[in-house]
Amino acid sequence: MIAPEDGWQRLHPRTVQVTAVWVALVAAGIAVPFVLGFADAAGLGLMLLIAVGGVVLASAVAAVIDLMRWRHTTYRVTDERVEVRYSWVLHTHRSVPRDRVRTVDLVSDPVQRVFGVAKLKIGTGQQTSETSHVTLDPVGRATAEQLRRELLRRSDVVAGEEEQQGPEIAKLDWRWLRYAPVSVSTPILGAAAFGAVMQVSEWFQLQGAVFRFVRDLFGGLSVIGLIVVLLAAALVVGVIGSLLLFVEMWYRYSLRNEGDNLLMSRGLLSTRSLTLERRRLRGVEVIEPLGVRMLGAARVDVIATGMRQQTQNESGDPKTLLPAAPFDVARRVAADVIGSEAATATAVTGHPRAALWRRLRWGLYCVLAFVAVLAGLGFLLTDVLLHLAWISAVVLTPAAVFLAHESYRNLGHGLAEEHLVARYGMGSRRTAALLRSGVIGWTISASPFQRRVGLVTVKATTAANSGAYPVYDVGIDDGLRFAEEAVPGLLTPFLEPRR
């Protein structure tokens, strides 16, 4: 038992300072454009006084609110339960059994690291957001590490005995950095940087100067040339941003065994340490985004019960165990995590050609609808849209054909010793190796268009992650046989012999 018997403990008292510093930083960021925007009208001195006063007031109010939260929040960890209670105005008492604790996520942002505290999120195997976890925010770093080890310690480990760390499964290789620029974050970061420049220039009332600078710098270029230059600049900024983001997320990355658990740690400014109980694993998913796949790389996500979804304030998905790495490395890590090399090396069975024609038809229908809308508007409004319509048809038709073939090539399914394998995806190919004993049901569906060509979609239902892993557009006989062989007897009561 970690806490004293029947003893309730408070969170770390530095939570007040952490909250005050964060609010001060956010308020200062908001105050800067406010001061610059009204400095000419009201005077710089007066605006600075108002801004400083506002930052101090906001920090003080936040500190008082958090002080009340700290004074009225207590927690305790006993041999049976983890409990957190809040007893002021609204009284809440959240409790989870220790034997249902499946994941322990330790997160420490830059301000928390300065004050030596961390946030501890303790998850269970439940899927409901309200009852699946308790959060201690914050506790001391040493206390968080101790709780992380104790909460997932099995009963066969003697109290006070440290679990032996197993061999390291994977660690950061800086050569993986070359995969960051081909991720989807590169154009997003480039566009975000362009938007940030425009927004900041508006705060400083310098948008006109920015436009004049660009015009003078590239005045000899045509409009198309200027667009190409700006896109190239945004791409360069996006590449630099993606490299920096990779370093921040995956610095000091390590994945290792710790007794019966998996321990992953990573992060530069915000550090994360995720402990996952092995017996809650239901498989892995090898994900190959198009750009990364062209360079022969993939990332690995874990399929496990009790895994929470990514939140908006997180820079990475909690279930990602390996960043984009060479495919051989990703397959080895996936095999080590689930303890089966056969599951990651299983050759998948392709799907009927009807699945290809179905994708081709849908792709061409979408192109036709888009071109028809442009052409109709062109007849009504301007000839420019008519030209845009035929240009779109020329560009989008081969793209739709390529994507249809790409999606079809990625379809597949197969069976390994203890796992079933499902592969699908268009831009991003996903190969899921799911533990057959973890399948709790099947969903067989067929749209009217699928029934016309003898196809069905078979989904394996499991109490982990998204809850279902699909085998798209497989033949009816093959799909039902696959489901019956994967989990014998589960589908039998619903099958009828074919005449």
TrEMBL record:
Q: Which residues cross the membrane?
A: 20-39, 45-67, 176-197, 217-247, 362-381, 387-404
InterPro entries reported for this sequence: UCP026631 (IPR014529), YdbS-like_PH (IPR005182)
Per the record's keyword annotation, is Transmembrane helix included, yes or no? yes
Every copy of the YdbS-like PH domain together lies at 70-150, 408-484
Keyword Metal-binding on this protein? no
Source organism superkingdom: Bacteria
**One Pfam family matching this protein:** bPH_2
Record keywords, A-Z:
Membrane, Transmembrane, Transmembrane helix
PANTHER family on file: UPF0699 TRANSMEMBRANE PROTEIN YDBS, UPF0699 TRANSMEMBRANE PROTEIN YDBT
Recorded protein name is PH domain-containing protein
Q: Which organism is it from?
A: Actinophytocola glycyrrhizae
